Here is the input.
Amino acid sequence: MTARPAPARFPESALAARWAAGAPGPLRLEDGRPLRIIFPGTPAGGSGPDFTGAILDAGGDLLRGDVELHLLASGWRDHGHAADEAYAGVVLHVVARNDGPNAFTFHRSGRLIPVLVLEPGSRPAFPPPFTPPCAIATARGQDPSPALERMGLRRLRAKAARVSPAVAAHGPGQALYALLLETLGGSANREPFAALARRLPLALLLETAPLPGVSRTLAFTAALKAAAPPLALRRAGLRPMAAPARRLESAASLIARWWPEGSVPGWPPALGPSTTWMAASVPGIGRSAAIEVAVNAILPVALASGALPEAAIEDAWRALPSPGTYGRLTRLQSWLGGEAAPPFTTASRLQGGLLLHGDYCSRGACGRCPLSSAPLAVSH
Here is the structure.
């Protein structure tokens, strides 16, 4: 390593843009190995590493995983990434300046992550910025909607396949209840809420007898909250409506609606073939969260259990509006039409985008997806 002057003032977004566009070579890691960028990864756009699914050649070692960027190498420690499991898959730390003595960045998993210093400057990148085949095909008039719809239905069937063992073992009611809690738990509390569904099964919850003058919703809320303390719930940094207590209150309200007094813990009769996302809308569960419940709980369990006709489920799936584009799909959205012709106008197409991102974009399989028209000349 050699001492470098402090970089000129420029935002971290500029460093990210230089990495995404193709850094000028030759590149050399702080440990002395040459670095060749096979695929820079896909911008994540949310919490966690800045790029996902990168493929790199570090002196003959093939690296596949995430890339994190900071202006200073010490940003890794200052932001708490060393102890964050979300960063356990980082394979390269790109910095504008290495302000420490080490050639590697440490993660508590024991991994040593190589460091690349990408010098600040305004030189144009070579090779030129990567343009994926799907963006070229869309610019030439190809409509991505049919392929996204097909991939969206594939994702629905995949969700149904994953929940099928739970349906077979515990019945559709318990499976729906468990996925409802998982979905409402969100990324912060998904696992603890799943554990809560096992700790307090639906059949036991429905047996909760409210005191005189107390509604079933309040009784269910009290039972859920009483079973929750042993679980490691995250409370800090969440929006008020996403706080665990508020989510459990909303879940109790929805459970009381879906399974009226005297119901057995099976598939809720209230969820019929014409069910829409409105069936999951109660105080505390807004439009986007209700759509997520339909996408991740109601329709997959209905398909896995045969509770509703398959044709009706597919119609309901296609009719769901989009809850809003996820951060990790921001770049893909810009390739497939951007704000002028947004591609993810329905939940089904958004789910198709997630499948596309997971199976192709983030796995170095660009050019082989259903939206890529071959043969096309693409600059790399």
